[in-house]
Protein 1
Amino acid sequence: MKIIVYSSKPYDRKFLDEANRSFAHELEYCSWPLTPQTVRTADNKPCVCVFVHDQLTRAVLTSLKAGGCELIALRCAGFNNVDLKAAAELGLAVVRVPAYSPESVAEHTVGLMLTLSRKTHRAYNRVRDGNFSLDGLLGFELHGKTVGIIGTGRIGAAVARILNGFGAHILGVDISPNEVCTRLGVRYAGLEELYREADIISLHCPLTPETRHLIDEAALGKMKTGVMLINTSRGAVVDTDAVIRSLKSGKLGYLGLDVYEQEEHLFFEDLSDAIITDDVFERLLTFPNVLITGHQAFFTVEAMRSIAQTTMDNIHQYEQTGTCENLIRL
Ligand code: NAD
């Protein structure tokens, strides 16, 4: 199949080429994202392969269909950037990679927790500067703390499994509780209880109309003073302005982000020589108790290999049978 691969970086090409060896699809890589301005580059390609920041709006999907596209293959689990209703109406199939090493994101999540709780991000710079003072580096232990996990699916469960080893108590919130988590000793609760009890809150639900700005002023107001909030799910689950106000007041004690509401203007690019005009993002960077990574939680060899393999398998399955086990249904 002819496949155009948008937003592709050298590392995407490496893993996709490797996975394509047993299929021999015709891959055309472009570094630019799929947008209303670039959509015509997909003309005459039956398959479009995209990532988290590609814009699959109704207008873009309509142009894709007109250009001969049949299949949209997401190289990710989340699909909040796709207008699924429009895709269904246009008869475009959308497939995704539902599970690829949830441990990649879970381990990064716990890494953010430990870095913030032990202030290693600050210690790293101090020691390099010959400053061996411990003032300001007093940490806290995860052992015995209550961690609230919102969204106890594959990644949430992997986080729970790791935190079990630390001796943390785990509260879960989910619209559909997970047996695996119950067996791990996760106690399901309501959001109110989780906000009230948790010392650390970690977000692992998808971005949906229901979860957009789930963590807003009101939610933050119900949390413990000094709580740690970790978001490795999708940026807009958190209301960034509300979080900044909460950090300024001291209510929010620690913030670890791998995702950010406006990240498509920043992440995955080297902007070290550019002037960043996003003042909200720049404000976040000024807090000593905020740690941000640029959507890298998934970025391990194991996950990249698995994403590439599943993407190629999805395309092959669709080409052979006209359907796919990883088809997203409305
Ligand atoms: P999953 O589908 O296995 O789990 C999501 C869980 O959230 C499900 O159990 C679901 O029932 C629950 N949920 C849905 N709506 C909810 C709500 N309103 N309140 C509470 N729970 C709700 O997905 P996953 O593989 O665990 O991934 C979770 C999210 O992580 C993805 O949607 C994606 O946005 C994000 N993600 C981020 C990265 C990264 O690199 N930072 C990588 C992969 C996935």
Protein 2
Amino acid sequence: MAERIEVLLTEEEIDKRIQEIGNQISQDYAGKQVHLVCVLKGGSFFMCELAKRITVPVSIDFMSVSSYGGDTESSGVVRIVKDLDEPLADRHVIVIEDIVDSGRTLSYLLDMLRSRGPLDVRLCTLLDKPDRRVVDVKVDYTGFEIPDEFVVGYGLDYDQKYRNLPYIGMVKFD
Ligand code: IMP
Ligand code: MG
């Protein structure tokens, strides 16, 4: 079945919001260094754009997790597919995610990262679907709260497609 993509957030809106978050993080971490932990693959587009707009010193690392479950539903049982290259001790960590949906993946991941001795761990997500939350997760920086729609673009995929769209679109089947 062919799907149709309907624009939800334009590239301009996203750029503007990322600049605002970059400013906020630069202020909040004034005089410190931040260590951005990108959750692959979806968080990568957002992290690159955000990192360029942060004015305090930045280091980056990547992690890939897979949560057992169907294509559009996560189970909360998370397997580390690729771990971080560097330890987190004595770092101000900001986890960069594409979207927080049920919160299951993030809740597990944040607990695991906090156990590695960082100074602190905050969460920054481009998108948040609060209506879908099953597990409580504290989000420190949110790009946009969106309705309960399946979205793609800016790193987010449907069946590994559409990650490269420069905007966020809703997937429609009709
Ligand atoms: P959670 O554990 O349910 O919060 O799952 C979060 C993960 O599910 C995200 O990092 C995405 O990989 C995926 N996901 C959730 N909602 C969407 C969506 O609307 N489009 C694409 N991927 C999504
Ligand atoms: Mg993700």
